[in-house]
Amino acid sequence: MSRVLERCHSIADLRKEARRRLPRAMFDYMEGGADDEVTLRRNSDAFLGLELVPRVLRNVQRVDLGCTVLGSTVRMPIICAPTGGTRLFHHEGEAAVARAAERAGTVYCLSSVSTCSIEEIGALGSGPKWFQIYVWRDRTILRDFIARCRDAGYTALCLTADVAAAGNRERDLRNGFAVPPRIDLNNALDVLRRPVWLWHLLTSPRIAFRNVEKHAGANMSIASVMEYISRQLDPSVTWEDAAWMIEAWKGPFAIKGILSAADAERAVKIGATGIIVSNHGGRQLDHVPAPIEILPEIVAAVDGRADVILDGGVRRGTDVIKALAVGAKACMIGRPYLYGLAAGGEAGVDRALTILQSELELGMKLLGCRSLAELDASYLRASASTIP
Ligand SMILES: Cc1cc2nc3c(=O)[nH]c(=O)nc-3n(C[C@H](O)[C@H](O)[C@H](O)COP(=O)(O)O)c2cc1C
């Protein structure tokens, strides 16, 4: 491990390092949220509303962090969420995340708009892999994705349901964010100050959305592929489309972007086996609840009929403990592993996952819990503190 990574002891440390290494437009694309970023901030801050109630003298010599979620057995309940365009942050991209996730004994969910293909990631290692899917206007793409995931050995699909339109991310508009990254008079100095990032951008294969290229048409510029992707994200999608996909996949299937008990109930009714409580990391609609705030209602509505996964705002092992004590089966993380990736490639993702795993294990010991199954609401209380 590099000296830089050795000096990173928390996700916040990795974030600082990522910020130092990435041009502003890349860091802001990773970090930013929609509108005034109220939800983005709230996703993490809302964990402060819960306090942990430890129990003592319980022989916590050994702590088991293993569980089974969406049919995949993992060594810790922290799943790597789908993030598109990962090679913008480090040239090793999704492959680095997939390898690190497998080493940590967990799952990586590959994004539809990834810069490595379904097949490339499917061929790495032998651990379980999930794929994130959208409902595309052109249903032949959907059929093709489902068939390719099956052939490449993916074990679960996650339908992202909160993108009827792209969120308003003003940082990206201000920075003139583009894929592939544009270097002009406005950002030249900023980019030149990140020579390692720039060197890799210039010397590694062109950044492209590998899964959609073939549908968008041969030899299209990446800008045209992006335009094609946004045309394909279908705002007329309904529950019938989701039900069709569940039927077509015939395996573990989660719906990502659920923020109401009514939608959770409906998802279970059409056969979803996972509910991902998520607001897309605050990147879509601003002023929606933080996942941890809405989680109790959704856990109650699902009532054990599907795995509930909390996604958004997790930055500490204690955040994971709180989510699981409320009733989540596991948590997903997006930015935490991206900070690691930007800070140090694959070793940086290893570092992010190790930090969270160690924090979770230590937190469980100090809480007096030996296994995730023991976690319940008796370990939580609402915070009465007025300290922000
Ligand atoms: C840079 C970036 C790209 C993302 N791309 C996708 C995507 O392609 N598909 C998707 O379903 N979610 C995407 N997300 C959302 C994540 O899957 C996840 O919901 C979010 O990052 C969780 O919040 P956190 O970053 O606070 O952990 C993206 C998030 C980020 C930060």
CATH class: Alpha Beta
Summarize the biggest pleated sheet. Answer: 8 strands, parallel
Give a count of the beta strands, DSSP E runs of length 2 or more: 12
Distance between the ends = 36 Å
CATH architecture label name: Alpha-Beta Barrel
Strands side by side in the biggest sheet: 4-11-10-9-8-7-6-5
Continuous helix count: 17
CATH H level, superfamily name: Aldolase class I
CATH overall fold name: TIM Barrel
Low-confidence stretches: none
Radius of gyration: 20 Å
Tell me the domain tally.
1
The string of secondary-structure elements, in order, is HHHHEEEEHEHEHEHHHHHHEHEHEHEHE
Bound molecules: flavin mononucleotide
Outline of the structure:
The chain is of the alpha/beta class and 388 residues long. The protein has helices at residues 3-6, 11-21, 24-31, 38-45, 93-103, 118-122, 139-151, 170-175, 188-192, 195-203, 213-216, 222-232, 239-249, 261-269, 291-302, 317-326, 335-367; strands spanning 50-52, 67-69, 72-74, 78-80, 108-110, 129-133, 156-160, 253-258, 274-278, 307-311, 330-333, 380-382. It has an 8-stranded parallel β-sheet. Strands 1-12 form a two-stranded antiparallel ribbon. A two-stranded antiparallel ribbon has the order 2-3.
Describe this structure in words.
With 388 residues, the chain is α/β, with parallel strands linked by helices. The protein has one domain: TIM Barrel (Alpha-Beta Barrel). It contains 17 helices and twelve strands. The strands form three sheets. Strands 4-11-10-9-8-7-6-5 form an eight-stranded parallel β-sheet. Helix 14 packs across helix 15. The protein binds flavin mononucleotide. Flavin mononucleotide (FMN) binds next to helix 17. The site of flavin mononucleotide has 23 residues, from helix 17.
